[in-house]
Design goal:
The chain folds into 2 domains: 102 residues, Beta Barrel (OB fold (Dihydrolipoamide Acetyltransferase, E2P)), CATH 2.40.50.140; 310 residues, Bira Bifunctional Protein, Domain 2 (BirA Bifunctional Protein, domain 2, 2-Layer Sandwich). Strand 4 and strand 5 form a beta hairpin. Helices cover 32% and strands 22% of the residues. Helix 4 crosses helix 6 and helix 6 runs antiparallel to helix 8. It is α+β, with helices and mostly antiparallel strands and 481 residues long. The strands form 3 sheets. It has an 8-stranded mixed β-sheet with strand order 6-10-11-16-15-14-13-12, sandwiched between helices. Bound molecules: 4-amino-1,4-dioxobutan-2-aminium adenosine-5'-monophosphate (4AD) and magnesium ion (MG). 4-amino-1,4-dioxobutan-2-aminium adenosine-5'-monophosphate binds next to strand 11, strand 15, strand 16 and helix 14.
Length: 481
């Protein structure tokens, strides 16, 4: 490699050295100053061309988006805004970019516009910062678990089971949709399908994760998961990444401790490793909030928000207590909630979660012990309370501005109780017979949780639409690129 990365040059003080830079033109001013970016940092390097010594035809090709090779001397910059610059001795255009046609102009584009050209948005400072942070957070997740000797388990993407029992699955098939094979009784004959049975994309690696936890002790998965829920919101994707640890011999308290430690660790990692990126996004958020009325702006800036989460304990509250708080809350009394809370058992909507986190506790909240009826079949059942109400050892972690970031629970280890619950919600035993073996042979208390990776990135970057923190978002009616 003959060239030096711009990140390195911007920190260099080897003045008068000859250097070579390869990158893309961000702007070209006064026929003289080229701002070049090569992706190694959100910052550009300034290269100064001697326009009197340069052919006009070449100068005309220095346009936003063009790929260039620049050779010259690294010098201390005279201008404001940068410490070093390059005095160009040789300039080559590696790839032209027609300014009449190139969609990215050197001006501020809206996030909505950039979403339409998601194949080019990596070339902007904002998206450079977001995806560097996404990278750093992935790396931090692996480092966290590796330090604690969790085994990284690759659970299948194609499965025959519905781990959440919510039925929001994308089918995987090679059957000819125009000519479906039928059984004698007229149903679709999945024996003819590729796997000889009906299959779908996974909604969660949890069930397979539990199998491995009952052998390794502690495992985690970190992979893509798929939900065909028709929720066109700023918090939902049809394809998202989930981090799912599963731990033998962990009870609910241990589970919450681990989740809280993980979130604090990775947020801290991002602060330490991506200070420039977070600073840029802090400014972006500040500018965005300026357009809102005063009472909707957040009191803390992005960096303060991140530090606040690291430095404070998450509030741990039972569902039952949360319902009491919500019942008595102003928006409930004044009927401002869209869904009023009047009874124990109600599922919490995002307006309720946000009230608890943003208005009442003003910090991340872990809600525990939800009603059995609104949670998944595999969660450990509590003894019914004095009023005969059934709850499960669930825990959801709610974050300011995000809502649910984590969903998890202690698992039901009793085969009988699990089977009884499956029968109640209509999950046939044969469907997950292999899973039930964990309860048949050497069953033990165990727990786990799932972190929505994009929701975590939303929080760390201060972005507000989940489509902006995954390179190529998949949402209802949209699978571009
Ligand atoms: O609460 P969920 O559905 O929990 C599970 O899937 C469990 N099997 C996890 C476990 O215990 N191993 O999903 C976990 C998290 C949610 O809290 C949310 O952050 C995220 O995944 N999530 C989504 N993120 C983006 N788009 C969607 N459609 C999401 N659905 C869930
Ligand atoms: Mg959930």
């Amino acid at each position: 490699m003959e060239h030096t990365r711009i990140k390195e040059l911007l920190q260099s003080d080897k003045f008068d050295n000859d250097v070579i830079v390869k990158g893309w033109v961000r702007t070209f001013r006064n026929n003289q100053f080229i701002a070049i970016n090569d992706g190694s940092t959100i910052h550009n390097i300034q290269a100064v061309v001697d326009f009197e010594q340069t052919d006009d035809s070449l100068l005309k090709r220095i346009t936003t988006g063009a790929a260039v090779r620049v050779e010259g001397k690294l010098i201390e910059s005279l201008g404001k805004g940068q410490r070093v610059e390059i005095k160009v001795t040789d300039l080559q255009i590696l790839g032209d970019s027609d300014p009449e046609k190139y969609p990215l102009q050197p001006k501020k584009h809206s996030l909505e516009f950039l979403r339409e050209i998601a194949h080019l948005r990596f070339r902007t400072g904002t998206f450079n910062a977001i995806f560097k942070i996404r990278h750093a957070l992935s790396f931090a997740v692996h480092q966290f678990f590796n330090e604690r000797e969790f085994v990284y388990l690759h659970t299948p993407i194609i499965t025959g089971s519905d781990a959440e029992g919510a039925g929001e699955m994308f089918r995987v098939t090679t059957l000819d949709l125009d000519n479906l094979p039928r059984t004698d009784s007229g149903e679709i004959d999945f024996k003819e399908d590729f796997f000889g049975k009906s299959t779908n994309l996974t909604v969660s690696g949890q069930l397979e994760g539990e199998l491995a936890a009952m052998a390794f002790g502690n495992i985690y998965t970190f992979g893509p998961t798929f939900r065909a829920e028709n929720s066109n919101t700023t918090r939902h994707l049809a394809e998202f990444w989930m981090i799912e640890p599963e731990m033998a011999f962990y009870e609910l308290e241990d589970n919450m401790d681990l989740a809280e430690a993980l979130l604090k660790y990775v947020i801290n990692y991002a602060l330490e490793h991506c200070p420039d990126e977070i600073e840029l996004l802090k400014t972006r958020l500040f500018e965005e909030e300026k357009t809102k009325p005063q009472n909707e702006r957040s009191a803390l800036n992005l960096v303060e928000k991140l530090n606040f989460v690291i430095e404070n304990n998450f509030e741990r509250v039972s569902y039952t207590d949360a319902i009491e708080i919500l019942k008595r809350s102003k928006p409930n009394q004044k009927k401002q909630f869209k869904y009023l809370i009047d009874e124990w058992g109600a599922d919490l909507q995002s307006e309720h979660e946000r009230y608890l986190v943003e208005k009442h506790f003003k910090k991340p909240v872990i809600l525990t012990d939800y009603p059995r009826e609104i949670k998944s079949f595999y969660m450990k059942q509590n003894e019914p309370d004095a009023q005969g109400r059934h709850t499960v050892r669930a825990m959801d972690i709610l974050f300011p501005g995000i809502g649910e970031m984590v969903g998890g629970s202690q698992r039901e280890e009793s085969l009988d109780k699990l089977l009884a619950r499956m029968a109640e919600v209509g999950i046939p035993e044969e469907e997950i017979d292999w899973f039930l073996d964990t309860r048949r042979f050497g069953s033990a208390p165990h727990s786990g949780f799932g972190v929505g990776f994009e929701r975590l990135i939303l929080f760390v970057t201060g972005m507000t639409n989940i489509r902006d923190v995954i390179p190529f978002p998949r949402t209802p009616k949209n699978a571009e690129f």
